[in-house]
Amino acid sequence: MKMMTIGLGKQYGASLCHEAGFKHMGRLVPMFAEVILANCSILFGLAIVENAYSRTCLLKGLTPAEIPIQEPGLLDLARKLMPKILFDNIAVLVIDEIGKNFSGDGQDPNVSSRFATPYASGDFTIQKVCVLDISEKSHGIMIGAGCADTCTRRLVDKSNLEASYINAITSTVFDCVRLPMILKNDYYAMAACIKTCNEVDREHIRMVRIPNTLEVGEIWISESMMEDAARNPRIEILSPPEELPFDANGIYFLRAPAFPGSHLLNPFRRQVFSRIKNRPRGINPAGPVFILFLIILQGLPRQQSSLPPTGCTCGSYS
Q1: What was the pLDDT predicted at 302?
Q2: SS3 302
Q3: How far apart are CA 86 and CA 134, in angstroms?
Q4: What distance in Å separates the CA atoms of residue 185 and residue 157, rounded to the nearest whole number?
Q5: What strand order describes the sheet that includes 56-62?
Q6: Is 6 helix (H, G, I), strand (E, B) or coil?
Q7: In this structure, how many other beta carbons lie within 10 angstroms of the beta carbon of residue 278?
Q8: Segment (H or E) for 60
């Protein structure tokens, strides 16, 4: 339904639907889609549910009549299969990259806990969120940076503000493109988050680092969370604890081994991290993306299409 309203509607359709604000999106998206179904030659819809590794775990074809009936159930399935960081009371979350190729919000709020609108929320919170960079595929679109507390100068230098603002103006939501506190490198962006957490033990900070909010199958956790990890049967510890390595410019080596003499100041004193396998739904954690693709055959009368009475195709793989 959303792909008909906003995807096929392009910027103009998205702008019309967002005009009333996110408060009314749940009502307007189906209403717009019903009008499109009644007036356009929709051949069929192909629903795709992806897992946390960006691999398809379900394909389901739907006739035009089946789309409004069966899509809500498929959306519920996608929500149940969303990835999750399997820890409570996270003080600091470090996200290596944000980008539109990871989430429409740049960072998936269901993972980061940071929603850009008051009309959506999750069941957990994280005190401080730090973002380090923008993905190359995002082409400077810095949507999602505004939901963080700190970012790097590198991220800001890569940002295409004008292109990012088009997205924000279309959605009528500006928070996602506001600039957070800008620090000169990775080290200071992380340190500022640790320093400003409230009611925590900074010597044993509960801190998680993820490459992005789409790929959370393997993540890094601080040593203070190791006992929680060991007790959880859905978590596999992949490496012993090691210090966060930074170069002389304060840039974090994402997968480099620890080295003696790394410049760890007070916020990182005695902080070491381990790599773990995060399995929200067992061996094949299913993920956050539900996409409905639609094909419009312009000018083709509906009576010329011959569709089976129940979906076009249905299958799954993992």
Answers
A1: 40
A2: helix
A3: 25
A4: 12
A5: 286-296, 42-51, 56-62, 314-315
A6: helix
A7: 23
A8: strand 56-62
- Contact by Cβ (8 Å): 238, 277: yes
Residue-wise pLDDT for 271-286, tens only, equals: 567 778 877 653 344 4
Instruction: Provide the mean pLDDT of the chain.
Output: 78
What's the N-to-C CA distance of the chain in angstroms? 25
> 34-43, 218-227, 298-307: which has the minimum mean pLDDT?
298-307
Strands 150-152 and 128-134: parallel
**Three-class SS of residue 186?**
helix
Q: List beta partners, residue 276.
A: 219, 237
The DSSP code for 69 is H
The set of residues, in sequence order, having a beta carbon less than 8 Å from that of 52 and lying 6+ positions away, is 83, 214, 215, 216, 217, 280, 285, 286, 287, 288
Residue 125 has pLDDT above 60, yes or no: yes
**CA 57, CA 111: separation in Å to the nearest integer?**
20
Q: What is the DSSP letter of 83?
A: -
Could you write out the DSSP letters of every residue in 221-288?
EEGGGHHHHHH-TTEEE-S--EEPPB-TT--B-SSPPP-TT----GGGTT-EEEEEEE-TTTTS-EEE
Most confident of 110-124, 217-231, 284-298: 217-231
Radius of gyration of the chain (CA): 22
Q: Is the pTM of this model over 0.70?
A: yes
Q: Look up tokens 């307007």; give the residue.
A: 28
Q: Which amino acid, 154?
A: R
Q: Give percent above pLDDT 90 in the chain.
A: 37
Residue 134: helix, strand or coil by DSSP? Answer: strand
Burial class (CB within 10 angstroms; exposed 0-12, middle 13-18, buried 19+) of 75: middle
Closest CA to 64 of 36, 92, 96, 88: 36
Give the contacts of 36 (CB within 8 A, at least 6 positions apart).
4, 5, 8, 42
